[in-house]
Amino acid sequence: MSENLPTLHEFFAPGGVLAQSSLTYEHRRGQFEMAKAVESALDNGRHLVVEAGTGTGKTLAYLLPALRFARERGQRVIVSTGTKNLQEQLFFKDIPFLESLLGPLRVTYMKGRANYICRQKLYALRDQPILNGLEEINQYREIAEWEQTTETGDRAELTVLPESSALWSKLDARTEACLGQTCPNFERCFITQMRRRAVESDLIIVNHHLFFADLSIKQEAAGAPDAGVLPEAAAVIFDEAHELEDVASAYFGISLSTGRFDELARDTELLLRARQVVVSGVDSAIATLKDRARLFFSTLPHANSPGRMPFTGRADFLELNGEAYLSLLAALERFFGELDRVKDVDEVQGLKKRCNDIRAHLRFLMETEDPNTVFWIERRPIGGVRNAARRDASPALHTQLQATPIDVSELLVATLWEKFSSVILTSATLTVQAGFEHIRKRLGMTSARELIVPSHFQYGKQALLYLPQGMPDPRDPAFMKHATERTRRVLEITAGRAFCLFTSYQQMRELYERMLVEVPFPLFLQGQAPRKALLDEFRATPNAVLFGTSSFWQGVDVQGEQLSCVIVDRLPFAVPSDPVIQARMEAITATGGQPFFDLQVPQAVIALKQGFGRLIRSINDRGVLMLLDPRIQRQRYGRIFLESLPSYRLTDDITEVENFFA
Known about the structure:
Blueprint: H1 8-12, H2 29-44, E1 48-52, H3 58-73, E2 77-81, H4 84-102, E3 107-109, H5 119-127, H6 133-147, H7 168-171, H8 190-199, E4 203-207, H9 208-221, E5 235-239, H10 244-252, E6 254-257, H11 258-274, H12 282-299, E7 307-310, H13 314-340, H14 348-367, E8 373-381, H15 385-388, E9 397-405, H16 409-417, E10 422-427, H17 437-443, E11 449-453, H18 459-462, E12 463-466, H19 479-494, E13 498-501, H20 505-516, E14 523-525, H21 531-540, E15 545-548, E16 565-568, H22 579-590, H23 595-612, E17 623-627, H24 631-634, H25 638-644, E18 649-651, H26 654-661
Parallel strand pairs: 1-10, 1-11, 2-4, 2-5, 3-4, 5-10, 12-17, 12-18, 13-15, 13-16, 14-15, 16-17
Antiparallel strand pairs: 6-9, 7-8, 8-9
Helix pairs in contact: 2-3, 9-10, 11-12, 11-14, 12-13, 13-14, 19-20, 22-23
């Protein structure tokens, strides 16, 4: 392997390496400027934040400097993406393209342990089959056959395995049941092999969830050498960095549900049966644990519908329901004691650790007084979004007890900014009114160079932003009637080919049902099928219209005429009654800030930029954006939104929409 990679100028300049590639080449000044800024940050051990508009080619602008730095310094770089889809695009598309120009590169792709098969579990289940029904038996045969040929052990290769497969959770490589170096299959373990590839690599491509899960594990383990899966690295580059606060909050928090108790009980039963171990009292301890867990969760405060609610009166709750809580702790202690009596079964150590972790998390959730933590309860349909999308569904609810940091900035200072010599944040949506103040404050990023790279697209020519006249306030009962009329008219002009994006399931369902009788186009509703299947069907169906909520506002790429219109029902403000948002607003007020302008408006601006960003994905795309919320023009804060958006051509005249498509 050649140790010399081309300089940035040799690669990006007119007539350079990139110009001679198979790509349709056009020199992009912003791409070159970003690449130089990334290289400077890495070489000088500095942090950097870059907003790079869609179409600037930001992926190559950080990949080449990262590879050059790692090759020259012999220090690893981690690239973390917002989604697995983007992660796969980097590894299976962008890296092979670079290799076609530069030769072989030392790059590894890593996902969380639950994505990989555990050979030890698979063989144990083969020797002592404990499978539920014909479906699991057939799935086991398919997995066992695949295991003999796969080189990665990555579940993504198993296209025939349903997403909801209960069998996979019995076979995956999660840490809790891992035997480590004592495992008979340690050398052939896919996690072991993945780690070895990572240690030998210059660049490791992960996703934010894996990165922060690993960071959290290492923080809890207080520097234990085998903690986590990611090896040491000098620098980390976050693509889609606007998601970092939410992801970090989730992994630095604590979550507990009946599901964790059920999984611990199930895994214990499976292990002891597979090893043919009989310990008097274990079965009784398992039954007691499951029963006490259900009793405890049933006593938690609850609302009449799914959703989140604050859990503020924990001390009062314990006064009334202390017996249920103490009984659950006692059941955990008894369960641990029974496991302690199991001898000569190495896997039991993992079960005992899980039991201790659950006990520690339960105590934290119920007894800890931490001013930087908000405690809350979430109840959601067990069937998830697909059940939630059905108006007539009344599914059973899954209850989760949660603790979330109110402010993650100090945690990130200790675990991120001070740990890595260089941290680089990039996304198409990081600024509010052309400034990084919001993202810096929320993430504790005090010292960093800033760069804004304008998009390569000509938004003034490619996109028209239509703000219809005469719309009532979204909270007005007449809003939906007017929204229906404006949506129908625009969809007629665009011949469908649209995304309709909403801030709530209720609004989404209501407008979808109205449109079913108003327009002749194929309509797809989030929840009718998995997200990827819906997108594939949308791309393949002429004149289709897709109705979606938050998961369709970002990470979706549909190029060409198939998506020619994006309609947003209202400004995407977070629900102020959400426990985490509420706690963060109160914290800002307590320090003399203005929560609406310091938190809610900036978050909504970034979300709106993401939603509108679905429309123009290439230099040839054209289309119309419609925002049905009149507050962007009537309220003082509307100016912040308009000044933060790309330079779309603006109109309130439907005739201009007609002319745009004529």
